[in-house]
Amino acid sequence: MSVPTGVELELDDIQRGVLSPRPTPYAATYLAFRIDDRAHGRELMRRLSGAVTSVADSVSPLGETWVSAAVTCAGLRALGVPRSSLDTFAWEFRQGMRARAKALSDVGESGPEHWEAPLGTGDVHVVITAVAPDSPRLEAAVDRARPVYERLSGVTAIWRQDCCALPTETEHFGYRDGVSHPAVEGSGIPGSNRLEVPLRAGEFVLGYPDELGGVQTPQPTVLGRNGSYAVFRKLHQKVAEFRRYLRDNSTGPRDEELVAAKMMGRWRSGAPLALAPECDDPGLGADPYRRNAFLYERDDPAGFTTPGGCHIRRANPRDASVAGEVRLHRMIRRGAVYGPPLPDGALEDDGADRGLMFAFVGAHLGRQFEFVQSEWMNDGVFFGAGDARDPVTGSAEGGAGYTIPRRPLRRRLAPLPRFVVTRGGEYCFLPGLTALRWLGDLQD
After folding, report:
1. Is the domain of 286 the same as that of 198?
2. Do both 124 and 139 map to the same domain?
3. What are the angstrom distances between the C-alpha of 94 and each of 89, 181, 433?
4. Which InterPro entries does the protein's record reference (predicted)?
5. Bridge-partner residues for 311, per DSSP?
6. Tens digits of per-residue pLDDT, 79-90?
7. What pLDDT is attached to residue 1?
């Protein structure tokens, strides 16, 4: 466990989208661009440096509204960043998500050959994200950002995905989302678990010491410092199939909710099994100060309350010794739903595209996002479950079932289908505001 170092972050140079939790509820949009003319791409960077919101900018004309800008490796090449500089970025970032598909278990119907264009094609160079408390203010934020890219004929808008966080804070499977957020040293932003010591700033922001004492910074320093990496993934959710699985593997409505909780590790209200083991507690689930304040190893090492294979225990094993140094794999995750909800009680798919826009932010693509995705979500070796995969988001294709620890006999559910399908994604770099200006001032 790290000891606080008193580091001071340069918050006025770090994009707000790196460290700040999103408001609740909120609306968001992702806009993707291709750079066809280098000079226009650089002008876009100059304009973005004045439009992007920093962590220090806590007062916005539109309230809890901000704009973030990210660049892919292909985008950095299109801007003319020298090869010597590109070679100092994380190798996963340089390869791109499409090349990393097998390691991420994006195979079968989640394979890149089935992705939604232009994701994974190399045409996505810049991703602008706008976040606001509601749709009218989101559109106002987009309108304010529009002069940044309009009238630049060498920059082409090629994709847009609108999404939101509902007032209920739930995603399409019905679970409260966005419950867990780590505290980052020097940010001044509290975490969601008072039992978790703040993580070193270098786990999430480039140019600062991380949990191992190292400092990761792409070169030159003016480009890398105060930046971060971002992973964007469009994930389609098979809501009707998920509902049918719960129905077919339970004895009735009450048992169905228990099975759903045992698969997620939380009741759908957000109340964790660790604090509400017998029945749901909506009041607890709605309380951001209580619903995430728990550990596993002291009270539930065998997973009789919160199964070791459930979604939240895989994604963040907290104090689990069998998972190695958990703090090295801690992530900032954000999700927003897209598409219309499937009507309550419907058990047949209506053909609508619905799911989650997933975002990861961190300084270590390999040991944070990719490690958790490959070793914890899509494998079970770390807690003694062989090749068992995450029951909610894992890449299972009807192979292994799901086991719920129970005395005197464990409960074994039917083989798990794939409930979540990858529709595409990108590995991006979130430059600091100084770095955006540097990119804008590049010369051939």
Report:
1. no
2. yes
3. 7, 27, 22
4. Dimeric_a/b-barrel, Dyp_peroxidase
5. none
6. 999 999 999 999
7. 44
User: Is 171 part of any domain?
Assistant: no
115 falls within a domain: yes
Same domain, residue pair 269 and 231: no
Question: CB of 199 within 8 A of CB of 183?
Answer: yes
Contacts with 4 (C-beta within 8 Å, 6 or more apart), sequence order: 185, 197, 198
DSSP letters along 120-188, please? TTT---EEEEEEESSHHHHHHHHHHHHHHHTT-TTEEEEEEEEEEE-TT-B-TTS-B-------BTTS-
Would you state the structure tokens that stand for residue 433, as one six-digit string? Answer: 């505001």
Residues 318 and 400 in one domain: yes
Judgement on whether residues 200 and 342 belong to the same structural domain of the protein: no
135 and 224 fall within a common domain: yes
Selection from 433, 425, 417 nearest residue 246 by Cα: 417
Q: What is the mean pLDDT of each run of 10 residues along the chain (444 residues)?
A: 70 94 88 98 97 81 80 98 98 98 95 98 97 90 86 96 88 94 93 92 98 96 98 98 98 97 98 97 95 91 94 92 79 94 96 96 97 90 76 78 91 94 98 98 94
Sign of CA dihedral 44, 46, 51, 57: positive
Query: 290: domain range?
Result: 236-423
Instruction: Please name the helix (run of DSSP H) or strand (run of DSSP E) that holds residue 314, with its range, or none.
Output: helix 311-315
| H or E element in which residue 434 lies | helix 433-440
Give the CA angle between residues 396, 105, 303 to the nearest 5°: 55
Q: Cα 344 to chain center, whole Å?
A: 26
Q: What is the pLDDT of residue 65?
A: 87
Distance CA 415, CA 402 (A): 7
The reply to whether 4 falls in a domain is no
Total number of domains constituting the chain:
2
Cα(first)–Cα(last) distance of the chain, in Å? 46
Are 33 and 151 in a shared domain? yes
Token output for 147:
């002069």
Integer Rg of the chain from CA: 21
Judged by DSSP in three states, 42 sits in helix
pLDDT 10s digits, 139-178: 988 888 888 898 899 999 999 999 998 778 899 999 999 8
Residue 52 domain-assigned (yes or no): yes
